Every structure is written in C-alpha cells, then in structure tokens.
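// run 5 | inverse folding | seed 20
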C-alpha cells in the first residue's frame, strides 16, 4: 500500500469519526430524515457540479448504473437512515461497536462478489481489531439503562449492511467510471427515497435554520460526505476492499481522541487496551492480509 493511499484512508477515517458529534448536534435542530436528505443532496450536487466543471464523463453501461443505484440505496438511503435515527436511541460507544462490524460483513461479501479472500493473518487481524472495538466501548456497552436499545441497534445494523453493500459495489466499479461523478450520483440517487420517507413522516418546516445547523449541515455534506466518499473510492481503485476496510477500526480511536481533546473525557486502561488491539488488527490485515482468487491486478484510477 502506497503512502498516498494510506494518507487518504486515514483522512477518510478521521472525517468519518468527526461525523458522530456533528450528527448529534444537528438532530436537535432538525427532523432526522429531512436533515439526512439535505446532507445527501448538498454533497451530491457539490460532487456532480465539480465533475461537470472538470468535464468528467457520465457513467456508461447498465452494469455501472445498476451498481450506482445499489450504492445509493445502500450507503445513502439505508446508511443515513440508520445512522441518523440510531443517534437518538444509542450511545456513541455502542453505536461505534455495532457500526464497525461492517468490515467483517464486507469481508464475507467481498469474497463472493470480488473474489477477495482473507488469508489467515488477515482473518486474525479482523478478529483482533473488532475485539479491540468491543473493549473500547465495553463500559458503555454493558452499563444498561439505554432507552429503546433494541431499536437503536436495529438502526445501526441496517446502516452497517447498507454501507457493506455499497463498499462492495464501489470496489466493483472502481476504475470503470469517474469517482467524482459516481459518488455524486449515488448520493443524489440515495437521497430520493430519503426525501420521500421524510415527506411522509416528518415536517421539513420544523428545521431550525440557525448558524449552528447550517455549519453542521455544510460540514457533514462537504467534508463528511462529498470529500470522504471521493477519497474512499479513489483508495478502492488500488487497494483490496478488505485491506482498506480494516482501517475503519480507527474511527472509534479518533472519536475517543476528539473526546479527550474537546470534551475532557478520560481514557482508562480498558480503553487503552482496546486501542492497542485495534491498531494490531489494522497492521495484521494491511500486511498481506488479503489476496484475489482470480489473480487480477488492482483496478487503476485516480481522482
């Protein structure tokens, strides 16, 4: 894995980690799905607009468009729906644990769809990394007293499944279409079901258009969605999905660091142990942890 790819992956994980506190602030100022729809539409228009200015081509082929639709329904519709609703019912620690089962789900699906197989070292790395996440969130996971716990977990699992399907589809079409145009279109496609559900179940006029909400919305749309998705797709053009996905175990680590720096949270020995396990897991998976059955070379491409 090149230094550039490593930098892009770490940057994407950092941006994803920053989304959690922003969503928590935003859902207090706007209905959940109306907020999610606005995030998707702004991010999608920004990417498609930039792609148009750069004269990037539209995707071609029924297979590519089918993959874009699956990406949109997965990452944007299901991912945003689950993420925004879960923030109301489940604590960040529990949400982080369940959400980070996504690399394990993707590892199995990538083996079927992409022909990527984890070696023994890679499987051990995924297990150790996920164990580290459980250790990090153990105090909150077993503290009890969570309102609507089961519903919150269901929303997070829904989001994780959506992102899993999307990641596999991204890897499948990576190098076959322009990343800017592809990620912008999938965001716009996925925003349509979100808008329909929001219109049927919420009052969009209940949004509090204050400075805080506008700041949070733009930060999530432009940096937490548009930029991070382009970084992620550009990485998957050259890096096996299982290898790149292993770095999602860094999201809760970055989240804990933000908590210490900005919210005065303490990191005890249990969380330190979890951080160590997560890092070991990433190292094991990224050091020759995945292979391709077909012997194909990674797809090439750039943003």
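// decoded
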């Amino acid at each position: 894995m090149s230094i550039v790819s490593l930098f892009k992956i770490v940057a994407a994980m950092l941006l994803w980690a920053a989304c959690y506190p922003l969503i928590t602030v935003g859902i207090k100022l706007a209905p959940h799905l109306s907020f999610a729809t606005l995030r998707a539409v702004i991010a999608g228009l920004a990417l498609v607009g930039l792609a148009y200015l750069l004269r990037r081509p539209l995707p071609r082929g029924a297979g590519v468009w089918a993959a874009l639709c699956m990406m949109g329904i997965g990452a944007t519709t299901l991912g945003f729906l689950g993420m925004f609703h879960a923030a109301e019912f489940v604590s960040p620690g529990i949400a982080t644990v369940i959400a980070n089962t996504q690399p394990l789900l993707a590892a199995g699906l990538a083996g079927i769809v992409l022909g990527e197989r984890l070696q023994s070292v890679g499987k051990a790395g995924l297990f150790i990394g996920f164990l580290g996440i459980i250790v990090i969130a153990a105090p909150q996971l077993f503290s009890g007293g969570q309102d609507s716990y089961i519903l919150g977990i269901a929303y997070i699992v829904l989001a994780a499944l959506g992102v899993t399907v999307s990641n596999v589809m991204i890897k499948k079409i990576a190098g076959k279409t322009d990343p800017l145009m592809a990620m912008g279109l999938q965001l716009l496609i996925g925003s349509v079901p979100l808008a329909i559900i929001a219109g049927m179940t919420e009052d969009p006029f209940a949004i509090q258009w204050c400075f805080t909400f506008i700041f949070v919305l733009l930060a999530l749309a432009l940096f937490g969605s548009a930029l991070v998705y382009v970084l992620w797709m550009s990485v998957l053009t050259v890096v096996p999905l299982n290898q790149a996905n292993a770095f999602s175990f860094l999201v809760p680590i970055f989240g804990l660091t933000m908590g210490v720096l900005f919210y005065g949270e303490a990191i005890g020995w249990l969380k330190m142990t979890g951080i160590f396990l997560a890092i070991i897991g990433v190292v094991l998976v990224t050091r020759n942890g995945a292979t391709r059955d077909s012997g194909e070379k990674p797809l090439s491409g750039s943003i």
